[in-house]
Each structure stands twice: as structure tokens, then as C-alpha cells.
Design goal:
The protein is of the alpha/beta class and about 130 residues long. It has helices spanning about 10-25, 35-45, 65-70, 90-100, 110-120; strands at about 5, 30-35, 50-55, 80-85, 105. The radius of gyration is 13 Å and the shape is globular.
């Protein structure tokens, strides 16, 4: 079963992402969530999700740190990370890339864009 982890400290953003991705649940995808970097890292290590939508500004461990730790772990090389952030400057995008992120998306984002990204990384037709 494919898994998507949504990591954001804002509950309304987590709920928005879950609502956008709910059609994937009918296709057998499990949605997981975390509200801080430490919990996210523990879930990633335990559940090995296929895809992580990861906010940057997180309590306890920021998204860049989580991304770097995941990408440096050979046992987690199948985990795709999409950084989500209100920080859309080129410096922020480059830092996300340097930490190993597979993609960097700026907030606000379109629901259709999020669905297309998830479909691409999971190899699932969103329709």
C-alpha cells in the first residue's frame, strides 16, 4: 500500500492537503500526518512513506533538517520529499534542492498541482 505523509504545524493546512489528496485513499493510498519535525522523522523511519509533503517552518526540527536526515539514510532512499513553503525565494528553493528534496512547491498552491505531483511520484492516475 502506498503512503503519503503530510507534515505541517498548521492544522488547517494539514486538513487542506488531506482534502486535496482524499481521492487517492480510494485508490489504496494511506494518508499520514505530523505537526512537527521530530514526529515526522519518526513516522518516516517507521512507515517509510512513498511521498512526503514537508513544510519548512516546523517546531522541534525544521523541514530542511528532516529532509537532509531522510536523504542521508540509505534505508529511506525510496522516500520522495516535496518541500512546501511560503518561502518562494530562489535561495529557499536552492536550499531545498541542496538538502535532497525531490521538488519544492511554494504556498499557496493549486489543489490540481498537488494532485498532479502526488500522481507523478506514486505512479497513480488521479482520475
Amino acid at each position: 500500500m502506498a503512503k503519503i505523509l503530510i507534515v505541517d504545524d498548521e492544522s488547517f493546512i494539514r486538513e487542506l492537503l488531506q482534502d486535496c489528496l482524499e481521492d487517492f485513499v480510494a485508490k489504496g493510498v494511506e494518508l499520514l500526518a505530523a505537526d512537527n519535525g521530530i514526529d515526522a522523522l519518526e513516522i518516516i523511519r517507521r512507515e517509510k512513506p512513498d511521498l512526503v509533503f514537508l513544510d519548512i517552518m516546523l517546531p522541534r526540527l525544521n523541514g530542511y533538517e528532516v529532509c537532509a536526515l531522510v536523504k542521508d539514510d540509505p534505508g529511506l532512499n525510496q522516500v520522495h520529499i516535496v518541500m512546501l513553503s511560503a518561502k518562494g525565494q530562489e535561495f529557499d528553493r536552492q536550499k531545498g534542492h541542496d538538502m535532497g528534496a525531490d521538488l519544492y512547491m511554494s504556498k499557496p498552491f493549486m489543489a490540481s498541482e498537488l494532485i498532479d505531483v502526488a500522481a507523478k511520484f506514486l505512479g497513480i492516475n488521479p482520475d
